[in-house]
Amino acid sequence: MVAALGLGALLMSGCDASEAMRFGWPEGITPQGKEMVDLWTWSVIAALLMGILVWALIFWTITFHRANDAKKGVFPRQTAYNVPLELTYTAIPFVIIAVLFYFTVIVQNDVEAKNDDSKVVVDVTAFQWNWKFGYNKVIFDDGTTYNGFEADGNPFQLQAQRDGEVEAEPEVEGEHGGELPGPAGGRDDDVRDYLKFNKIETVGTSTEIPVLVLPTGKRIEFDLASGDVIHSFWVPEFLYKRDVLPFPKENASDPIFQISSIDRTGAFVGRCAEMCGTYHSMMNFEIRAVSPEDFESYIRFRQANPKATNAEALQAICQVPGSVVTAPFDTRRKSDGSATATGNPNDTTLPNCTKKES
Ligand SMILES: [Cu+2]
Fold it and tell me: What sections of the protein cross the membrane (predicted)?
């Protein structure tokens, strides 16, 4: 009956087998994502098998071992302190947990793996309530390297602090003696030298979703940083998210993760997955995966036309210039000031109106 129900649900939902076997998860467009889908699929199958076994035992018991006249008043056989039985049902769950743990660690190690072979390094900066993407480094197919890191012009005057021109916050004495570190590890909260600036950047606004263009088939590194509160970088189709913290070093957070490739071209929505304030839910971006040739043309175009917008660069490689998977939210901050009063605030009574007798 259970099998028939399961099969019926599968057939009637009208979805294909591979989608059904993902049990609600997205497809996964990276090798890491696909690995996680496999782990999830097999974990659900194992849980379903265990569920079927438990249901079968319950139905077997209530069907064949219910009270009847012959058993009335008879104390049933007691099986407490049956050592072999108790050892068995302690050992079996332990084995189940060990197997799940083993496969989880294998997949997690692959997902968290990092090396120096990334062909694209993207600096991601999250802020309330949008994203900035900068190309830190790109290694092209012919072996040439584009270095996009902007070493000069840090608006937070890191240099001034290093040279001692900006004083550090005074130490505060703790309740039980000793020094209490201030916020941001005792540094001046304004000195955000962990933030990166690049020659080619894509910045989102309340009228434009930032579209991050990336090549397919290349290893990509994401270097995350937040300009204010904690955000979270989430691309559902990567099946992966990581918190984006301000002051990652002081907050003991590893801001870097890598994917070994994006496996197909297309547009994929990205979201902020950490409640970060009023417009948190509208903090979307888009990953636009294009062929490596198009990606190279895109970077070359932006290099040659520093004043051009991201939309123009996308058009130059024959891509839709704006986001296609999500749209900017109307923040109602876009009024041009032309809204006028519709009545007289000093007289709100209706003209020619007779009050009703109560
Ligand atoms: Cu956020």
Answer: 41-62, 83-105
